[in-house]
Write a structure and sequence with these properties.
By secondary structure, this protein is an alpha/beta fold. The protein has helices spanning about 5-15, 25-30, 35, 55-70, 70-80, 110-130, 155-165, 180-190, 210-225, 240-245, 275-280, 280-300, 305-320, 340-350, 385-390, 410-425, 430-440, 445-455, 475-495, 505-520, 530-545, and strands at about 40, 45-50, 105, 110, 145-150, 175, 195-200, 235-240, 255, 325-330, 370, 395-400, 465-470. The chain binds 6-O-phosphono-beta-D-fructofuranose.
């Protein structure tokens, strides 16, 4: 960490130590123009940060950190194809996936934009053929169902997008098989007809245990009906051409991408093929266009009006300034039900790091715990804790102004609830308000005194509201890219590598010997701690019984 960064962190800490640092309500009372000053727009999206305790000096200090961290320079280095994923010595070029051919993204001598254009061309052609009946199943039937077998980034993004945008008028349904728990496959299988099912094996590495196990299960099922012709029902989405060939998928059915696409940033690559098949090629290209619009905003807008930067700075204020270690994502749109799951991987796999780029221990907290549910369901689940618990939880509230159904009354209620949650969190309800309300309702004084502490809301609980004019492929592309760039910014501000994920390896390593012991039906004495050995013995016994 350089001197300027140390000074910026110290400035943020000193502002956050002030007694009123977390207060939001008084900021509105003091400044009627607060909404205008603390909300920003980009291509139709509106980000309102006025219901946080950011004010001009706090924002200036946070922008000072961004300057000191060289955020703009690091962003430009990413766009220039430098190997900013230092631990894996890789570039980070998901922006190339949604840029036009002429954008000219390059890395290590490779024309990344040309490589992208080539694969997109093939994906578009394949999509049109499959949806139009130009590519048929082994028995001559049209494909009506696509099963994407993948996990993590090879599942969450595409599953989230198709859930958000699919309509029953579409000629194909998409299904997502991720967990190695075969209950998932057993639940899906009855919904499928082998003659009409196309299978995409989606895996960057093509070695992931869950995916390869599920791919083998589904291949066996297809072979049961179609014999050796089952191969015609497969395609692969991967960087590992050797492994896809070894699995028996011919090169013309492999849609590749490069190692400069991280798994959690890969829905725009070949990994998004299930999106194109389910929603159509136009929708997929609109999704890319929305993300591209956000890329252009991110690359070309000064930091103080740059949505991803501002979202990241608000998070720094909450996590590091005020010590709020979690964040809730509340999309007030049922179609975005899987967005929290996608953001969990995007943010927590990227930012859950305890060492800086140079290997030294980080000097401040990193990645927040992200969780969420669609509103209004969340209100009847965990919002109690967010309103009255001891730990403030900043919320991202996503609202969509215009619905795609004709039920205006339902939509008004949905919006009213989303707006009300943000207002309630910020305003709270003081003792005098509770008292007056109960007295007016005729509650006896003794009862008011008894219930008063339980009915006070502390308020001053922050939320960011993201308002979309409409939910469609373009705006969804904008939103996902917004969060991707926010993650990049936080990585740069915290001085960590947001693009590796070594933390997932140890569990995978230890699962190998445990699997062998489960196969043998008995634990290897002394190989584990007492708990693991005890559990293994009990499980093996239960299995035998
Ligand atoms: O969980 C670790 C991880 O490597 C993720 O980063 C990735 O998205 C997921 O596994 C799936 O990996 P693959 O696409 O290589 O199967």
């Amino acid at each position: 960490m350089n001197e300027a960064m140390r000074a910026a962190w110290a400035e943020i800490a000193s502002l956050a130590a002030a007694p009123d640092a977390a207060a939001i309500r008084p900021l509105f009372a003091a400044d009627p123009g607060r909404f205008g000053r603390f909300s920003w727009a980009a291509d139709g999206l509106l980000l309102d940060l006025s219901k946080t305790s950011l004010n001009a000096p706090r924002l200036a200090a946070l922008l000072g950190l961004a300057q000191a961290a060289g955020l703009a320079e690091r962003r430009d280095a990413m766009a220039a194809g430098e190997a900013i994923n230092a631990t894996e010595r890789r570039a980070v070029l998901h922006m190339a996936l949604r840029a036009p051919r002429e954008a000219g993204f390059r890395t290590g001598g490779e024309d990344a934009s040309a490589a992208v254009a080539q694969v997109l061309e093939r994906m578009g052609q394949f999509t049109r053929l499959v949806r139009g009946g130009g590519v048929l199943g082994a028995t001559g039937e049209r494909f009506t169902d696509v099963v994407n077998i993948g996990i993590g980034g090879s599942d969450l993004g595409p599953a989230m997008v198709t859930r958000a945008l699919w309509t029953p008028a579409a000629p194909m349904r998409a299904h997502y098989l991720a967990n190695v728990d075969a209950h998932a496959w057993e639940a899906l299988r009855p919904q499928l007809d082998p003659a009409r099912t196309l299978v995409l094996v989606a895996s960057k590495t093509f070695t992931t245990q869950e995916t390869m196990t599920n791919a083998a299960l589904v291949r066996d099922w297809l072979r049961g009906t179609l014999g050796e012709q089952a191969g015609q029902h497969f395609a692969a989405l991967s960087t590992n051409m050797q492994a896809t060939a070894a699995f028996g998928i011919p090169a013309e059915r492999v849609f590749p991408f490069r190692d400069w696409v991280g798994g959690r940033f890969s829905l725009w690559s070949a990994i998004g093929l299930s999106i194109a098949l389910a929603l159509g090629w136009d929708a997929f290209t609109r999704l890319l266009a929305g993300a591209r619009a956000m890329d252009e905003h991110f690359l070309g807008t000064k930091l103080e009006a740059n949505l991803p930067v501002l979202l990241a700075l608000a998070e720094i204020w909450h996590v590091n300034g005020l010590g709020y270690p979690t964040r809730a994502v509340l999309p007030y749109d049922e179609r975005l039900a899987r967005l929290p799951a996608h953001l969990q991987q995007l943010e927590m796999e990227s930012l859950g790091k305890r060492v800086a780029l140079d290997g030294s221990a980080v000097a401040q907290a990193t990645g927040a715990v992200v969780f969420g549910e669609p509103g209004t369901n969340a209100q009847h689940s965990f919002m109690q804790l967010i309103h009255q618990g001891t730990m403030p939880v900043p919320c991202d509230i996503l609202l969509v102004a215009q619905p795609d159904h004709p039920h205006a009354d339902s939509h008004r209620k949905l919006l009213a609830n989303g707006l009300a949650q943000a207002e309630a969190l910020m305003r709270g309800k003081a003792a005098e308000e509770v008292e007056a309300e109960m007295a007016e309702a005729g509650v006896p004084a003794a009862e008011i005194a008894r219930l008063l502490p339980h009915r006070i809301f502390p308020g001053n609980r922050p939320s960011a509201t993201l308002l979309l004019p409409h939910l469609d492929a373009f705006t969804l592309g904008q939103v996902v890219a917004l969060y991707e760039h926010k993650v990049f910014c936080l990585g740069a501000l915290w001085g960590i590598n947001a693009f590796d994920q070594w933390g997932v390896e140890l569990g995978k390593q230890l699962a190998g010997p445990i699997l062998a012991e489960l196969e043998a039906g008995t634990p290897k004495p002394g190989a584990h701690d007492g708990s693991t050995e005890g559990l293994l013995r009990t499980i093996s016994g239960a299995w035998r019984a």
